[in-house]
Design a protein that fits this description.
The chain has no helices and 7 strands. It is mostly beta strands and about 120 residues long. The chain has a domain of about 80 residues: Immunoglobulins (Immunoglobulin-like, Sandwich). It has a 4-stranded mixed β-sheet, with no helix packed on it. The radius of gyration is 24 Å and the shape is elongated.
Length: about 120
């Protein structure tokens, strides 16, 4: 999951390989499609030799689910593929606690205290 306006998210996928072959020098060429299109959305960058996909946007219009298909092809056209789903979400609204009214007290200190903390996990 990626939250809009967060630092860049990098996704690295594992190399493909053949299990039933005596060849040890097979090289895969990787391509991706997003929602069935080889034209990537402007907020997604891809580098096949690194097997890396980078996602970053500040535009809330891109919120939604995206299917990313990864295809690995070798020299003779043989290929394998896999996919994963990326969810792009808008930042969750931050709510401020509303103070709770208390009955009058003869003390000068309020019997109620409030503490709010927010944490963000960044890659």
């Amino acid at each position: 999951m990626y939250t809009i306006s967060s630092p860049e998210l990098e996704i690295i996928f594992d190399e493909f390989f053949f299990t039933n072959t005596e060849c040890t020098d097979i090289v895969f060429t990787y391509t991706i499609t997003v929602n069935g299109s080889s034209t990537l959305p402007s907020f997604i960058e891809y580098e096949g030799t690194l097997r890396s996909i980078w996602i970053q946007t500040f535009d809330t219009n891109f919120a939604g689910f995206y299917r990313v298909d990864v295809r690995g092809t070798i020299f003779d056209g043989t290929y394998d593929s896999t996919f994963f789903i990326v969810e792009i979400t808008s930042a969750a609204p931050v709510s401020t606690p509303t103070p709770i009214s208390s009955e009058s007290s003869s003390s000068t200190e309020s019997p109620i205290s409030h503490s709010t903390s927010l944490s963000t996990n960044s890659p």
